[in-house]
Design brief:
This protein is an alpha/beta fold. About 50% of the residues lie in helices and about 10% in strands. It binds (2R)-2,3-dihydroxypropyl phosphate (GP9) and manganese (II) ion.
Length: about 700
């Protein structure tokens, strides 16, 4: 290090003394460097240019065109890998570079083809699944003739031509002694390392978060470059396999103990009430419950949702249990009654595990099962996971007509999505068997900024007054206008209108016959706490928030925030035969046990409970170790709790619930990581066979 510092110092001093001479010297040094490293440089530049071309041909946005960070990241990776090439003698180092040149070109080529077909980037974890190979194979055949996919081949071609030309140079064949080759390796590694350091210090926490999750592939490629993306993809795909190599015996024991001690409930008054009925499950993006109690200027924010709640079974103390996998975590939990995993997300990292899910159970009963979501099928790895969860058909973006006009926020508007779903549903109904379908909405997704595209809905306070001249005048106080929560309310009002339109269309097309609708908000909208403080403490006279000392001030603290994250859960039977409000605390993992009892199926590996059996005794465990019962909300990070019924809570009860939560989270994680459902079933099969003999 000292040596390098002295060299830099001397160099700067010399520049001062003799600038012209030094610059000439520098030029000569660069020329010598280039002459001596032509092959390495050809490899580096062809690979980096290919990576940049791939980004330019796939994601056509200004942000992407102007991005420098992915170039730096790609350059660093190519240089670090290339520096090893110096350790070899000339002929071997050519082969080394050629192999990497081919690998990097293949990465660009495969991703180019993949992107044309799926509008996303390829993942090793998916290619390793047999059911995924077929569609990819088709994609290759369909797209192979496109010129832009073949353009990346210029890299290896140029590389080989350069090598052939260099071979004619007498000095090219000369091998440097090993000590000098080692030195060259070190110097190039250093350059690569400095680039990595420069890149790392520019990273934001959002970028790091998304990188670790790996599901938002376009985002990662745009910021980290294609090569970093692909390396990260290999690591995240292999990681679950490595972690599942250890601790299997212990996990299996805990799993058996857990289910042996679990209290299972028998039939109740709801058993089989919906047996044989069609099920339309609406996965409502970011829909929270508090909106159901809100009105602005005499207009309800969610009139249709409120109507469903009034006319059906409404669970008004219901929580989502998501972790970093947000939407996909809810899909996992609602369908399998398992919790999100401790690391990564089940949908991305554990897509090759065995799950018992609602669609699979109903499929066994003769149902046709399907899902619809108008976003790219690869979002959250749904293409793979929906099949895994037992949906026979996944209608994704490519099955819908998405235009500029019918797009809001992330993609196809909910209204257009639902109306385009009707003809599909008619086809499905014509199959003549009961169906189970999940409809995942999209419009009500953060950042709720496409305000002008939502149906008009003012979130201000309007009042009519008589002015001094005796004229009647309308005045308005801004209230929630211009806040994120205000925009959320406008967005959810739109989502609610789309829901209303869907139900009308279903009815008009005879699709509500023998059908129930199940609706759940997938998770909260992560709105700023201060916006809630304004919502509940607005003083129109000062256009600000009430003072904390004001007798009307409502202390919306962090506990209120947590409790306010509730989402709606409704089971609506259009016949109007089942109307009830259930206020027992309930979580997403209780949906499967509750609903499966009504539909006459059963998942032996469920972790939640049928709410009509467990009633007041329920507990909702969150992935971060927090939990809530009817009487207490516990924050495991702080080790503090809030009594919800103004009753004293014993330490012993807290301890018992903590133990329960921990063991539930561990068992759930082990089931997924160690693929315990598959192992348990295999063991049972073996046992049955032995007994038959
Ligand atoms: C993406 C949509 C949103 O297709 O379901 O996912 P989220 O960001 O809510 O997890
Ligand atoms: Mn979501």
């Amino acid at each position: 290090m000292k040596k390098i510092r002295t060299k830099i110092k001397n160099f700067c001093l010399n520049i001062k003394k003799d600038p012209k001479g030094k610059l000439l010297y520098l030029k000569k040094r660069i020329k010598t460097y280039v002459t001596n490293n032509v092959l390495f440089l050809t490899y580096v530049f062809t690979c980096v240019i290919n990576a940049t071309l791939l980004r330019f041909f796939t994601m056509k946005t200004m942000e992407n065109y102007l991005a420098f960070k992915p170039i730096l990241a790609d350059f660093a990776i190519v240089v670090i890998i290339g520096s090893i090439g110096y350790l070899f003698k000339k002929d071997k180092s050519f082969i080394y570079y050629l192999v990497w040149e081919i690998i990097f070109t293949a990465i660009c080529l495969i991703n180019s083809i993949y992107y044309t077909f799926y509008t996303s980037f390829a993942s090793v974890s998916m290619l390793s699944l047999t059911q995924f190979i077929a569609p990819v194979g088709d994609a290759v055949v369909e797209n192979v003739l496109q010129l832009k996919d073949l353009i990346y081949l210029w890299g290896p071609i140029v590389f080989v031509i350069v090598h052939l030309k260099l071979k004619k140079r007498a000095d090219y064949k000369r091998n440097l002694p090993f000590s000098q080759r080692k030195k060259k390796t070190f110097k190039h590694l250093l350059v690569g390392g400095i680039c990595v350091a420069l890149f790392t210090i520019t990273l934001t926490s959002l970028e790091i978060g998304r990188f670790s999750k790996q599901w938002n592939r376009e985002y990662i490629v745009m910021r980290f470059g294609i090569y970093t993306y692909q390396i990260n993809d290999v690591i995240t795909s292999v990681q679950p396999k490595v972690s599942s190599l250890f601790g299997l015996d212990n996990a299996t024991k805990k799993f058996h103990d857990y289910f042996a001690n679990r209290k299972e409930h028998t039939a109740n008054e709801y058993t089989g009430i919906f047996e044989g009925k069609n099920v339309i499950a609406i996965h409502a993006e970011s829909m929270q419950s508090f909106v159901m109690n809100l009105s602005f200027n005499g207009q309800e924010v969610t009139p249709n949702l409120n109507k469903l709640a009034r006319e059906g079974m409404f669970f008004n103390n219901f929580y989502s249990q998501v972790s970093v996998g947000t939407s996909s975590d809810t899909e996992l939990t609602v369908n399998t009654s398992l919790m999100p995993t401790h690391n990564g997300t089940a949908f991305v990292s554990y897509s090759d595990r065995t799950y018992i899910s609602m669609p699979l159970l109903l499929k066994e009963k003769g149902y046709y099962t399907f899902s619809m979501h108008a976003n790219t099928a690869d979002f959250w790895n749904r293409r793979v996971m929906h099949e895994k969860l037992g949906y026979e058909r996944f209608y994704s973006k490519k099955d819908f007509e998405v235009t500029k006009d019918n797009t809001i926020g992330l993609g196809l508007s909910d209204k257009s999505f639902f109306s385009q779903a009707i003809p599909y549903l008619q086809e499905i109904k014509n199959k003549g068997v009961p169906f189970f379908g999940t409809f995942i909405t999209l419009t009500n997704h953060t950042p709720f900024s496409d305000v002008e595209k939502y149906d008009p809905f003012d979130v201000d306070i309007k009042e009519t007054i008589t002015n001094e001249q005796g004229q009647v005048e309308e005045i308005s106080y801004p209230y929630m206008e211009g806040t994120k929560l205000g925009n959320y309310l406008k967005s959810i009002h739109y989502a609610d209108a789309a829901l209303g339109q869907f139900i009308t269309d279903l009815r008009n097309n005879g699709l509500l016959d023998n059908t129930i609708i199940v609706l759940y908000g997938d998770h909260d909208a992560r709105l700023p706490k201060n916006d809630y403080v304004r919502l509940y403490n607005y003083d129109k006279l000062t256009d600000s928030v009430l003072d904390k000392d004001d007798p009307n001030y409502y202390d919306f603290d962090s506990y209120q925030y947590e409790l306010n994250r509730k989402v709606p859960f409704i089971i609506w039977d259009p016949t109007g035969e089942h109307v009830t409000i259930n206020s027992n605390v309930m979580g997403m993992y209780d949906v499967l046990p509750t609903l499966s009892n009504m539909l006459g199926v059963n998942n032996p590996y469920q972790l939640g409970h049928d709410i009509f059996s467990i009633k007041d005794d329920n507990i909702v465990v969150f992935p971060n170790g927090n939990w809530v019962t009817n009487t207490v909300y516990y924050n495991s990070q702080k080790g503090e709790y809030l009594s919800l019924r103004d009753e004293a809570i014993s330490e012993e009860d807290i301890q018992k619930c903590n133990e329960y939560s921990e063991s539930l989270l561990d068992v759930s994680n082990d089931i997924i990581v160690y693929d315990l459902i598959l192992r348990d079933r295999q063991q049972t099969e073996l046992f049955n066979k032995e007994n038959e003999k």
